Amino acid sequence: MPKGKGPQGKRITLKVAKNSVRVLFNGRRRLELSKMGIAIFPKCLLELADVEEIDLSRNMLRKIPNIIEKFQNLMWLDLHSNQIDELPAEIGTLQNLTFLNLCNNKLTTKGLPEELTRLKNLRTLNLGLNCLETIPTTLGTLKELIELGLFDNSLTIIPKSVKKLPKLERLNVKRNPLPEFAEKDEPIDTIKRIESLYLVEKKDLCNSCLQTCQGERDELHKLEDMTPGPSDKPSFSSLTTPNSTAMDNQEEWRIK
Asked: Segment Disordered: which positions (predicted)?
């Protein structure tokens, strides 16, 4: 990058990098360089290429260089919340990688290299919060995937090859313009339910309203007098199963 152009970011020395290595409970060594203001992948990290995990999240990285292929022991790589718009083809050489977080970057469909499908041991892949309009069908070759994050993109279709991944347990596609997840119009309820009941005295009603109320009351009394006999007892077979409203409240009834 020419001097004076683009973000320079914080310079990471080898000493700083070595002091940022942590040994986890499982014995893996993690290089923790999150929130360090890094804009360019530090070449000094090549001296620590034998680490198993790298956390470069929450920085200002735009590119991941092809020297990433030197980190052949990597099993866990967190690059979320940067400004990465494309990945190098060399990322496909990281055959031991099981976790890859690329959430909250600027990745486009063109920025996903075909070599990404060579990560045969990958179990978690997070591509949420990017600029993806389509997902390569070749991602369906990642047979070990258990978790796949595709939320907050511009996807209109999810390839069948991805949906049918044999070990996939969690697929997050929220907040994408997918037709299959579009909100359906609520059906019109032809039965008008009374939400509120107001009681008033006769003296507060005008003549026309009073006449209407009295007429409806008389009709109600007529219905009460028309009590059906034993042989005329109505059968409501359609009500043997609770309606939708009742089903929604069954658990509440049981508790009471």
From this structure: 223-256
The fold of the 22-181 domain, in CATH, is 3.80.10
Q: Which residues of 55-77 are buried (b: 16+ CB within 10 A; e: fewer)?
A: bbbbbbbbbbeeebbbbeebebb
* pTM as predicted: 0.69
| Sequence ranges of the domains in the chain | 22-181
Single out the residue of 204, 207, 227 nearest to residue 215, CA to CA: 207
**Sign of the C-alpha dihedral computed for residues 154, 58, 99 and 45 taken in this order:** positive
Asked if 48 contacts 25 with a C-beta cutoff of 8 angstroms, the reply is no
The alpha carbon torsion through 15, 57, 68, 27 (nearest 10 deg) reads 70
> What string of pLDDT tens digits covers the 256 residues of the chain?
444 455 567 889 999 999 999 999 999 999 999 999 999 999 999 999 999 999 999 999 999 999 999 999 999 999 999 999 999 999 999 999 999 999 999 999 999 999 999 999 999 999 999 999 999 999 999 999 999 999 999 999 999 999 999 999 999 999 999 987 555 544 444 444 434 444 555 655 566 666 666 777 776 666 666 655 555 555 444 444 344 444 444 444 344 3
Cα-Cα-Cα-Cα dihedral sign, residues 221, 222, 227, 233:
negative
Q: Strands 76-78 and 170-172: what pairing?
A: unpaired
β-strand partners of 55:
32, 78
Q: What is the Cα–Cα distance from 39 to 46, expressed in whole angstroms?
A: 17
**What are the Cα distances from residue 143, in Å, to 18, 151, 164?**
35, 20, 10
